[in-house]
TrEMBL record:
Top-level taxon: Eukaryota
Subcellular location: Cell membrane; Membrane
Biased composition (Basic and acidic residues): 22-32
Region spans: Disordered: 1-32, 446-485
UniProt xrefs under Pfam families: XK-related
Membrane-spanning ranges: 73-93, 281-303, 309-329, 341-358, 370-388, 400-420
Classification via InterPro entries: XK-rel, XK-related_scramblase
Protein's recorded name: XK-related protein
A biological-process GO annotation: phosphatidylserine exposure on apoptotic cell surface
Family stated for the protein in its record: Belongs to the XK family.
Cellular component terms per the entry's GO annotation: plasma membrane
Length: 563
């Protein structure tokens, strides 16, 4: 990650790129000009996420204890392993993030705040430049001024208490709970306070939401997905369903569907160049994943109840093929090659169960290929079980299971079409592009925010738009439109140029802006987070984040070979 700073204040007048021509993306850029605030719905969503987390973990532990009391030690061991191992992995990753965030390197960020305070924060510019190795660097303006010492008994005691508190939380496997509670606290604080404190709390809440969504998504596919397949296989082999087994399987399925949809929502909410996902769309997406993953895992369980060895071979082969497909697609999520490979391997695990978009642009072709592959695999697995099932399984029971798999997958596909055709944040999608919902005057298609330079992000993350090329137009006295409507064919809006805002500190990130669904660099690199939060709290005006603007694919290729 390019996060090494020269720390020198530079005039911003010549640093703002004039224009970034839009490349091969036919979709019109979306605009988001209304300032987003933490709402009651956001609070309820976080509370529901906590409820899903507790129900999933508690039902698995309860079922493991029930297996132990029944003297079914193999089922007890497998159930417990799929609870403990993923939880430990997530706790280690969470504590590693905490250790970095709370380490003494935050003092270098305080130095940046001192620079802003000393210069009046009128035209301060903090740049990140890439060193010879990706991932190496330090926070912007580090070393310009010495940070305050860590002396003082009270300060030392507070830091020691925080280290001890976090260590106990992670030892007792409660990192996710703490992060959810902390997200609620930051959201409520951002709602109660006014600017500039509101912006600062909102930044921190978005960063915390990004962390917990990543952790929970990882945990869901390491714990809930294999747990669901295991419990379904046990139920099919025993030809009976215990109440605790049904409860555990249901909780695991809901957790999987919830976290995929929640991850996509948080990802869109964090991007200023993407329209946020409504809760109605999130609920439909949950139903989509609920039924498709349910059909997938049931087909797995049916096949695994008869062909245990071949099921393992199938899973490994499917994972290898999906991982190779993802790597071949050249994803751009992480800051280093090896991190990118590990990320692709993890997404390969997700692809065992459901579709997960990992690239920018049109995904219809890739989704169609994946959907057809999954459909063919489900049919093959269910057919193999139906033909080679045990003698204890009656024909009526077998017919019922086949119908459940088919109907569940059909329902999931139906909700997928409902989401993309009616509730997608970018608008309804037809076979040829965007559907014009209504006719509006051409003058009203412009937005004052579209005059801002490309790849320029303001705080909070969801307040400004990222525009491209020809979209940089505005109409005087017109409020910003939230959902863009394609103008009538042949009509052109009048072009008016506005001088972009140049006051306040600017954080220049010497990297091209990441494409959806990858997070922006400042949501991945924790050093940039510290700089943003320090400047946000120290500067009287909102700091701006400016990414490197690359105009041509050749320039992108040449730039990427140097980082």
């Amino acid at each position: 990650m390019a996060a090494k700073s020269d720390g020198a204040p530079v005039s911003t007048r010549n640093e703002i790129p004039s224009e970034c021509p839009s490349r091969s993306d036919p979709r019109p850029p979306q605009r988001r000009v209304t300032e987003q605030r933490y709402s009651v719905q956001d609070c309820c969503w976080t509370l529901c996420a906590l409820l899903v987390f507790f129900s999933d973990g508690a039902s698995d532990l309860w079922l493991a204890a029930d297996y132990y009391l029944r003297r079914e030690y193999l089922c007890f061991a497998l159930t417990l392993v799929f609870v403990i191992v993923p939880s430990v992995v997530v706790q280690v990753l969470s504590f590693r993030w905490f250790a970095y965030d709370f380490s003494e390197t935050i003092e270098s960020g305080t130095a940046a705040a001192a620079v802003v305070a000393a210069s009046g924060a009128d035209e301060s510019d903090f740049s990140t430049k890439d060193s010879g190795e990706r991932g190496a660097g330090r926070t912007a303006a580090a070393g310009v001024l010495p940070g305050p010492g860590t002396g003082g008994g009270a300060r030392g005691c507070c830091r020691a208490f925080m280290w001890l508190f976090q260590a106990l939380i992670h030892i007792f496997q409660l990192a996710q709970v703490w992060r959810y509670v902390h997200t609620l606290y930051l959201g409520v604080q951002s709602r109660w306070h006014r600017d500039p404190k509101r912006r600062h709390y909102y930044w921190r809440m978005m960063f915390e939401s990004a962390d917990i969504s990543m952790l929970r998504l990882l945990e869901s596919f390491l714990k809930s997905a294999p747990q669901l397949v295991l419990q379904l296989s046990i139920m099919i082999q025993a030809s009976q369903v215990l109440p605790l087994q049904g409860l555990s399987a249901s909780a695991s399925l809901i957790s999987l569907a919830w976290m995929i949809s929640s991850y996509q929502k948080i990802l869109r909410d964090s991007r200023d160049d993407k329209l946020p996902m409504t809760y109605k769309a999130v609920i439909v997406q949950i139903l989509w994943h609920l039924f498709t993953i349910g059909a997938r895992t049931l087909a797995f369980a049916l096949f695994a109840s008869v062909f245990q060895l071949y099921f393992g071979i199938f899973i490994v082969a499917h994972w290898c093929i999906m991982t190779f497909w993802i790597i071949q697609g050249e994803t751009d999520f992480c800051m280093s090659k090896w991190e990118e490979i590990i990320y692709n391997m993890m997404v390969g695990i997700v692809y065992i169960f459901c579709w997960f978009s990992v690239r920018e642009g049109r995904t219809r072709c890739r989704m169609l290929i994946y959907s057809l592959t999954v459909f063919a695999e489900n049919v093959a697995l269910t057919t193999a079980w139906y033909l080679y099932r045990g003698p204890r399984t009656s024909d009526f029971y077998a017919d019922i299971m086949v119908c459940v798999v088919a109907s569940s997958y059909a329902l999931g596909t139906f909700f997928m079409f409902v989401y993309y055709c009616l509730l997608h944040p970018d608008g309804p999608v037809s076979g040829w592009g965007y559907i014009v919902e209504k006719d509006v005057p051409v003058d009203s298609l412009a937005s004052p925010a579209s005059s801002l330079p490309p790849d320029l992000v303001s705080s909070p993350p969801r307040t400004l738009q990222r525009t491209k090329g020809s979209d940089r137009e505005h109409g005087p006295g017109v409020d910003g439109d939230v959902f863009q409507v394609r103008p009538p064919r042949g009509a052109q809006a009048p072009v008016h140029h506005l001088t972009p805002r140049t006051e306040g500190p600017v954080i220049r990130i010497d990297l091209p802006r990441k494409k959806y669904p990858a997070w922006d660099a400042h949501f991945i690199d924790r050093r940039l987070r510290k700089t943003i939060l320090v400047l946000e709290s120290a500067a009287p005006v909102t700091p701006r984040i400016q990414y490197r603007c690359l105009s041509t694919p050749k320039e992108v290729m040449e730039y990427e070979t140097t980082v």
